[in-house]
Amino acid sequence: MLWSETRNLISPADDAWFEMFATTRDQAELKRQSGRDARGRKNEKPVIHLSLSWAIGEKPTPQHMLETATSALNALGLADHQAVIAAHGDKDHLHVHLVVNSIHPVTGLTAELKYSKERLSRWAEAYERAHGIHCDERIINNSKRERHARAREAADALMPGSSATAAKPPYVPVKHQGPNRQQWFTRKTLKDRMSRLRAEMDLTHKGERDQLWQRHKMVRSEITANTQAAVDHAREYVRAQFKPQWKDLYRAHRSEAKFVANAALLERAVFVFSRRERLGLRKPLSLRQAISFIRSPGKLLDRIDAVHERDRRSLSRVEKTEAKIYTEKIWTQYRTKVDRLIAEQTSERASLRNEQFGRTRGVTLEHAKASLAADMPKEAANDPGWLADEIKLRMAEWRARNGGKDFGREL
Does residue 406 carry a pLDDT above 70? Predict the structure, then answer.
């Protein structure tokens, strides 16, 4: 519930039923207190319920909805009656429910609700005209009512002492004429067949959508695979470019390690002092560190291993940076291509869904009628009453299985 309001009630909407019940219960006393005649049949069904709905997409404000509901109550002469107004948004269209007590809370009299549907129809037409809404059926019905009323008024004016009395037009109710039982069952049979035809078509449509989706996935997978192959090729190319550098580096490392392992004291001293920057890793060797490496070949070999590891990491970073330059270009092109492809495929699937929707909605009652005619027995193909006879047969079978539940009504 979006909101609720009450009219001529003290209690909030949730508790309004108690006040309404008290008014109904005390109807005779209210009549007596207001000086009204307490005779007459007690109102056993005082609750009036009606709803006002706006079209899908319309967004009336709560104030407008409340004013419209109040205007409808006024049109029915229920302005002074107890009422609860509740707005709902649980459907596609906004609407308000009005629950009204037909017993006046002061006089105890039951509201005069004769021709209430006609009064509401005229009120609705006035509302629609004021808000630029056009409802052909309502306008036609109200125009018919006006013509019938004028004809009867003209006849009434001639009635005293006139032979026109016999020619006075009869009262003609203007209202919606619902289908009879046979028509209802016939239409239901056609609607059921139409729904079945649409469901069968939807199965075909689902297969089409699945095929399209599989094709789209295959195209994306192919692009991804081609891109990955291009990336692998680029990495292999960079690896081949750096292969001579790695050979030279490993050759230099082996030669340096072999020299340090076999060098005499004086040779180690010359080696250490000539490479103080390199052996220091982060900063040049101190004199104490240099003397320690000269005295201990093992310590010097450990430091050489650390220096070699740093050289390898440095060359590896250079190679990775070079490879990234190539692969990043490839992945950028891939992302651009895939984004464009996704947009195209999404649009293609949407177009297919719209086309399928049009095909499904193209299955009408006429198609259902043709389908039923195709399923008819050959001897009934030219019998217009075949469908009604078929329905009667089914109803007879139903009654045989459900004795007494149809109250003996016939088609």
Answer: no
